[in-house]
């Protein structure tokens, strides 16, 4: 049983790792300015006093929300806690609001898509996003969809579990990829995987690593894009082999901490005072 779980965990972390690669190689085209004047790290970390998530999902791609973590904390409390940690101790206090139940998220019509190009992702966002950020109010857009990502060269990315369109607040999670890696009914593991993927992609949206939020210490994995050299940080580009997701979850739960970002990434945010 343990071996089965470990294999599963290994597969899932491979997915996560691969997703990090493609998430970061598929930036938006340089000549399309899809981010508004307020959708950048400088604004998030200077004038903004609230950070909220707008979450939408296709009917068959709803995120898991029923599981709890530790002492009855809703599973989406993981994302809430990680955002709070990034935006804590600011000169201006930042209010963080993450939905924790499906009733606080928005179901959109089935898109009947098996493949998503960057253009599709931007069109979907244009169709269904309701909130845009201002100087004082920040919204990140999170979509749970069916189908898989297709990169700018037209190559399908069946292992890409999530992505952030670089330089934008747009994060996508591909539920079919989550499901493919989670045969069986270990909902707690899937729920955790969704949360850790979301925390990772939001990290890119905030400006990690060295992609908007400047480095406070030497932990930028430059060879692998906007990622962290700390293997225990959710922003590490590859977390397979030495560790696997089961160990990661066990350690994470044993630690009693909700925070998936390593201390180096947290310090970057602390010391960023634009
Ligand atoms: Zn990444
Ligand atoms: Zn880190």
Provide a short characterization of the protein structure.
This protein has helices spanning 2-25, 41-44, 77-86, 118-128, 175-180, 187-206, 245-255, 263-271, and strands spanning 50-57, 68-69, 73-74, 95-97, 106-107, 115-116, 137-145, 148-150, 156-157, 162-164, 170-174, 220-221, 227-228. It has 274 residues and is an alpha/beta fold. The model is unreliable at 1-32 and 239-246 (pLDDT under 50).
Keywords:
single chain; 274 residues; alpha/beta; six-stranded mixed β-sheet; three-stranded mixed β-sheet; 8 helices; globular; disordered N terminus; binds zinc ion; Dual-action HEIGH metallo-peptidase; signal; MetalloPept_cat_dom_sf; metallopeptidase activity
Compounds present?
A: zinc ion
Judging from the principal axes of the Cα atoms, what is the shape?
globular
Helical segment count: 8
Biggest sheet architecture: 6 strands, mixed
SSE order: HHEEEHEEEHEEEEEHHEEHH
Strand content: 15-25%
Radius of gyration: 17 Å
Please give the alpha-carbon distance between the first and last residues. 50 Å
Query: Percent helix among the residues?
Result: 25-40%
If you average the pLDDT, what whole number results? 83
How many structural domains can be distinguished in the coordinates? 1
Low-pLDDT runs of 5+ residues are 1-32, 239-246
Task: Give a count of the beta strands, DSSP E runs of length 2 or more.
Answer: 13
Class per helix and strand makeup: alpha/beta
């Amino acid at each position: 049983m343990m071996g089965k779980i470990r294999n599963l965990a290994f597969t899932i972390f491979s997915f996560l790792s691969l997703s990090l690669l493609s998430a970061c190689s598929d930036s938006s085209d340089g000549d399309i300015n899809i981010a508004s004047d307020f959708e950048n790290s400088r604004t998030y970390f200077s004038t903004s006093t609230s950070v909220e998530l707008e979450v939408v999902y296709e009917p068959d791609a709803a995120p898991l929300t029923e599981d709890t973590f530790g002492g009855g904390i809703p599973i989406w409390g993981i994302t809430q806690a990680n955002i709070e940690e990034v935006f804590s101790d600011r000169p201006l206090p930042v209010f963080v609001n993450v939905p924790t139940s499906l009733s606080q998220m928005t179901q959109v019509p089935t898109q009947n898509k098996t493949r998503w190009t960057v253009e599709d992702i931007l069109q979907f966002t244009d169709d269904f996003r309701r909130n845009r950020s201002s100087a004082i109010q920040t919204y990140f857009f999170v979509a749970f969809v069916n189908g898989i990502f297709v990169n700018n060269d037209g190559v399908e990315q069946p292992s890409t579990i999530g992505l952030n369109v670089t330089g934008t607040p747009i994060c996508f999670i591909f539920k079919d990829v989550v499901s493919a890696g989670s045969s069986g009914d270990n909902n707690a593991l899937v729920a955790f995987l969704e949360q850790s993927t979301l925390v990772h992609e939001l990290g890119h949206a905030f400006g990690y690593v060295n992609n908007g939020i400047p480095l406070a210490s030497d932990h930028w994995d430059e060879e692998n894009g906007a990622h962290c050299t700390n293997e225990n940080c959710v922003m590490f580009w590859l977390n397979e082999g030495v560790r696997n997701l089961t160990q990661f979850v066990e350690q994470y739960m044993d630690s009693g901490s909700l925070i998936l970002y390593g201390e180096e990434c947290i310090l970057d945010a602390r010391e960023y005072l634009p």
